[in-house]
Specification:
- The structure holds 2 protein chains of 2 kinds.
- By secondary structure, chain A is an all-beta fold.
- Chain A is built from no helices and 10 strands.
- A 4-stranded antiparallel β-sheet of chain A has the order 3-10-5-6, with no helix packed on it. In chain A, strands 4-9-8-7 form a 4-stranded antiparallel β-sheet, with no helix packed on it. A two-stranded antiparallel ribbon of chain A has the order 1-2.
- Chain B is mainly β.
- Helix content of chain B is about 0%, strand content about 55%.
- In chain B, a hairpin with a 3-residue loop joins strand 8 and strand 9.
- The model of chain B has no long low-confidence stretch (mean pLDDT about 90).
- The chains are: A mainly beta, B mainly beta.
- At the A-B interface, strand 2, strand 7 and strand 8 of A face strand 3, strand 6, strand 7 and strand 11 of B.
């Protein structure tokens, strides 16, 4: 026999199908470990920069990063972007976790790496493992 | 009429006095995102440099999904996305790789779509990257995409 906790949405029964539930203890809710924000600064000619955020969970956690990228933008975007700069060159923005850190990284092409730059980032790291 | 439910506050917040939902770690009064299934699909690009294949999830409703893949230059990319990368081949020619990642989802199926192409800047040759294995990494949430809570 199964034991657990189920909470249904309004006007639904707890015996209804899964998508009608607010909570089903058989399926994990995303649980926030830590979140924060910062500015990633680059120095002209260095080709980009990486921010390292320690979590020390010992496994790859799920995470999400967004921010005001690229330079000059006033709108938030996911830090998963190839941004064309012209002459078949582009800047890349990415993030990825490993077992101890979250890396937020920008790589600038020669056309856009001529001045010091700053990019905002907001991150959230979940306890939930990135099993993928 | 009384309101029934379950809630828990964040650290240093009194659950009895919380009025702002963001001060709650948990509340049955609002929808919360939860994971139903995490799965990796993989396939190989055809002669057109494309992957266009259906995979069954059979949930019977359209779930919210988070989807990612890995690009030619080994970057983790969120989907949908368009990604470009460059490398120098053995003839010292510059090659640009362009990859288009996309997906569709329906009540019972997930369609993964990739188009992968190359362009040689020295010979101006272009074509499709066939025979390349890609992975689509999908997190299906148990939440319904049309949910308004």
């Amino acid at each position: 026999m199964d034991f657990g906790l189920r909470l249904s949405k309004s006007n639904n029964n707890v015996t209804d199908s899964l998508e009608k539930m607010l909570v089903d203890s058989g399926y994990p809710l995303f649980k926030r470990f830590v979140q924060g924000s910062g500015i990633l600064s680059t120095t002209a000619g260095n080709g980009g920069a990486t921010v390292e955020i320690s979590h020390n969970l010992g496994y790859k956690p799920s995470a999400n990063v967004s921010g005001k990228i690229p330079y000059g933008s006033n709108k938030y975007k996911e830090w998963s972007l190839w941004d064309y700069q012209g002459l078949q060159l582009g800047d890349t923005y990415e993030y990825y976790p490993d077992t101890n850190k979250l890396y937020i990284k920008v790589e600038l092409c020669s056309l856009s790496d001529t001045v010091n730059r700053s990019f905002s980032y907001d991150y959230i790291i979940f306890y939930d493992e990135a099993t993928l | 009429m009384s309101s029934w439910g379950l809630k828990g506050s964040n650290d240093n917040k009194d659950v009895l006095n919380v009025t702002d939902v963001k001060d709650l770690a948990f509340t049955s009064g609002k929808g919360m995102l939860g994971l139903r299934q995490a799965i990796v699909y993989s396939d190989v690009t055809d002669l057109n440099g494309e992957i266009n294949v259906l995979n069954n999830h059979n949930f019977g409703y359209i779930p919210i999904v988070f989807v990612e893949s890995v690009s030619w230059d080994n970057k983790r990319v969120k989907i949908p996305n368009e990604w470009h990368s460059f490398y120098i081949n053995s003839y010292r020619e510059t090659i640009e790789i362009t990859e288009y990642f996309n997906y569709h989802i329906s009540k019972n199926q997930f369609r993964m779509m990739i188009k992968s192409q190359y362009f040689n800047y020295d010979t101006f040759a272009s074509g499709n990257n066939s025979g390349i294995t890609y992975q689509f990494k999908v997190r299906y949430l148990f939440n319904e995409n049309t949910d308004t809570i």
